[in-house]
Design goal:
By secondary structure, this protein is of the alpha+beta class. It is built from three helices and six strands. The protein has helices at 40-48, 55-65, 70-86, and strands at 9-12, 16-20, 25-29, 34-38, 53-54, 90-92. The strands form two sheets. Strands 5-1-6 form a three-stranded antiparallel sheet. α2 packs across α3. The longest helix is centred in the last third of the chain and has 17 residues, at 70-86. The radius of gyration is 13 Å and the shape is globular. The protein starts with 8 loop residues before the first strand and ends with a strand.
């Protein structure tokens, strides 16, 4: 797996489909046939990566939208993106 850095570009995997269910996003991984759901912050991230976006740009958007310390925001974002990448929901370039 490609390491995720602030300069990495995040792209939604073509092997997934997702839908918004009243503020919650549900994602189906077409490869594993597993469903995933995202919380409010996850939904915000998912919306941001509608087009290929750098981690730095995602971090700026998240930091501006939520009252969180920059180091915590970066750490949490990298953890969420790493989990999404491991599950095959996103691609990292």
């Amino acid at each position: 797996m490609t390491p995720i850095t602030l300069n990495s570009t995040i792209i939604k995997s073509p092997d997934q489909i997702s839908t918004d269910l009243g503020g919650e996003v549900v994602i189906l991984d077409m490869q594993s046939e597993e469903y995933y759901s995202l919380d409010r912050v996850g939904v915000h991230i998912w919306e941001i990566i509608e087009t290929p976006t750098t981690v730095r740009e995602i971090l700026a958007a998240i930091s501006g939208a939520y009252d969180v310390e920059p180091a915590r925001a970066e750490s949490d974002l990298l953890a969420v993106l790493s989990e999404m990448a491991q599950e095959g929901l996103i691609q990292v370039e």
